[in-house]
Amino acid sequence: MSTYARSVKTISTKLAVIALGGLVWSGANAVQSTAANASGAKEVNLYSSRQPFLMKPLLSAFTAETGVKVNMVYMKKGMLERLKAEGRNSPADLILATDIGNLHNHDAAGLLQPVMSAVLDSNIPAQYRHPKGHWFGLTVRARILYASKARVKAGEITRYEDLAAPGMKGRVCIRSGKHVYNISLLASIIVADGIDGATAWAKGLKANLARKPQGNDRAQVKAVYQGECDVAVGNTYYMGKMATNEKDPGQKKWAQSVNIIFPNQADRGAHVNISGAAVTKSAKNKANAIRLIEYLSGDAAQKIYAERNFEYPVKPGVALHPLVASWGTFKADKAYLAEIAQERTRASKLMDQVSFNN
Ligand code: FE
């Protein structure tokens, strides 16, 4: 059994222990690792909100190359609260999370530490990492428009700003305005159009919604397929996940019913976001944590990310999945994600101010 399979198998029991007794995850291992650390433990403890199906091949490849064992705990939710509660005793050396919002929230809570790495600086464009090394992008996704092939004419919608135009009444679907993806999108609009422009946009978009915000990104494309709305907002990789979905083949029809539009190609470019990694302040295996992030930003890992999850590699020059390549090249908003992250608090308040979800 691989190292990874072993650590995953133990996750459920460890989580159960936490629920019952409040014992810290992998309590025995954590003690071992602290004790062994002085002599250079060949392991690293990872909290990941990225799913096991994606991380398994990446972590196995890392262990095969370096001999460093990765103890991964998968957390769909609650990572921030967990790290806060564990404080300096947290066994976590690094985290993996999606969206600049989640990474930024960990940073704002003082849970991360700066990392200096020439490898990371070289592999990851500056736009996609924290200027002082508090977090690093590992994959890129664009937040794009999914437009009905039947009901949206070519060229009719080309910008995020078009979603808020008067002619779009009742035609737009989007998930909760408070979801991290949409807060980041709105923050990018604050950066581009200013707070007044962003306020007008959020109000205009709300006025054009076909229904109250609900469901996830894929549910919006389903609603387009079902005729509830004509255009939806979603992340790029969902197109790949729907178009190739053998478990739920109905999703292929949702994908077939839409064209994808990369917004704002004639001006600032499409809003892009990342999944990324960061070293925790509590890290006891810091060198191994950095080594893992460096590995994940390298060619071999970037290729696995691209192949398995329909995301864009963060490292320039790594091949795209053929399906992703078929969507064509696009211009990405050049705004630094660290700058967009600074506007997230205002964006979140703005969503409340315009009662976006009600
Ligand atoms: Fe997602």
Specify the biggest β-sheet. 9 strands, mixed
Query: Stretches where pLDDT falls below 50 for ≥5 residues?
Result: 1-39
What compounds are bound to the protein? Answer: fe (iii) ion
- CATH superfamily placement of the largest domain: Periplasmic binding protein-like II
Structural class of the helix and strand makeup? Answer: alpha/beta
CATH class of the largest domain: Alpha Beta
CATH domain topology of the largest domain:
D-Maltodextrin-Binding Protein, domain 2
Helix content: 40-55%
Report the CATH architecture of the largest domain. Answer: 3-Layer(aba) Sandwich
The H/E string reads HHEHEHEHHEEHHEHHEEHHEHHH
Number of domains: 2
Whole-number average pLDDT? 90
Classify the beta-strand content into a percent band.
5-15%
Sum up the overall morphology in one term. globular
Radius of gyration: 21 Å
Oligomer: single chain
Determine the N-to-C terminus distance.
Answer: 50 Å
Count of extended strands: 9
